[in-house]
Amino acid sequence: MGDDFQLIPLHGKHPANVREKNFNRFINSHTPAILLTTDVASRGLDIPSVDLVVQIDPPSDPKTFIHRCGRAGRAGRRGLSVVMLHPGHEEDYVSFLEVRKTPVIPFPQPISISDTEAAASMNVARKAVLKDRALHDRGQKAFVSWLRSYSKHQASSIFRVADLDWEALGKAWGLLKLPKMPELKKFTGDKTLGVDITWDTYAYKDKQREKRRLEVLQETAESGGHQESSNKRRASESLAWSNKIENKNKKLKRREQKHARQERDRWEKMTEEERQKARETEKLVAQIREKNEEERRLRRAATKAGAGMSGEDKGDEFHGFDD
């Protein structure tokens, strides 16, 4: 953030004393500050003088959406809450909120970022990551965690993993490569994200951790691990094409059966109230999809869209903060 803002983290995995310390740093800041937080701050915290709330990911529950918005514009002040949506299916979230009686309006000042600006931001992030392999590891874990959360969204017909642009997301996260995930098994794009790096020499800043990495690398080399890997690859390539197809179909069938079991188990673990809520959500989504399908065919892909809501009066257009 440079010298313009303080960036202060707050999330549930912080120890209680750290959460309290960071919370107090934010509310007592005498200079502009940004609180980077999870839903741990969406309710129960009275934070004065918050002008803007930006929701990077739309929450599953409209009630949570309202609670997040309510952090801005408190005690009679004007405030703004913005939720970021990708063009296409995610725009149906606006109709989803309307059905749930939580109307939003288009952001009056569309966010426009050029490819050059996006590339510059990505390069800044990657430059920092290249200095310490630990940052790469954290980025990989964070990306996987985000994807799991996205895939479990209550409105799964709107927020679909199949619609994600993997390369664009990886670059936006400042990743050096896409992580290994089941969702990427059929992905045929560039998993390296255009990064040419010698992974054997990519080091940890922490000396003890780097020493251990080098020891493991040496042990693998001495045990013939690379040769074994090469032999396995050649053996795989020597399989008849028909056998490959058959094995692939078997794996696909097992995967589908596993998914069906997981869905059945998840449903059985739900309370009746949760099941009813899930049914209502899917019904609403189906109605929204039917309503917007014709419009979608006529609408051209737009740049990243946003929807904003005033913290004080959700029906008014936002005209600026009070002095």
UniProtKB/TrEMBL annotation:
Compartmental location: Nucleus, Nucleolus
EC number(s) given by UniProt: 3.6.4.13
Protein origin, superkingdom: Eukaryota
Gene3D superfamilies registered for this protein in UniProt: P-loop containing nucleotide triphosphate hydrolases
Any one annotated GO CC term: nucleolus
Main location: nucleus
Region listing for Disordered, in residue ranges: 218-323
Molecular function via GO: ATP binding; hydrolase activity; RNA binding; RNA helicase activity
PANTHER family, sorted: RNA HELICASE
Record's comment describing the protein's domains: The Q motif is unique to and characteristic of the DEAD box family of RNA helicases and controls ATP binding and hydrolysis.
Annotated function: RNA helicase.
Protein name in UniProt: ATP-dependent RNA helicase
Species of the source: Aspergillus tanneri
Organismal lineage: Eukaryota, Fungi, Dikarya, Ascomycota, Pezizomycotina
